[in-house]
Amino acid sequence: MAVEVKLPQWGMGMEDGVIVQWLKAEGDAVAEGEGLVEVEAAKAIEVVESPAAGTLAEILAQPDEVVKVRATIAIIEPAS
Questions:
Q1: Does the global pTM surpass 0.70?
Q2: Sign, CA torsion 4/34/54/39
Q3: Where are the chain's structural domains?
Q4: Which of 9, 34, 39, 54 could form a disulfide with 17 if both were Cys (CB 3.0 to 4.6 A apart)?
């Protein structure tokens, strides 16, 4: 079953973030806890980590895109 990567809320007032750059590309293998994407929120750059091991199947948010907190930004197909 696919795992959704969601934009976390790092601070109480955080409502959205801007995708800065993807550290992995579609089709890349990822480990749980590995950095996937850099996001700018409240003038700081944070890294969203992979919630599961597997393959980065689909990127749903592109660089410079504003994304709401808890929005799905990527899909990971778990390792079998």
A1: yes
A2: positive
A3: 3-78
A4: 39
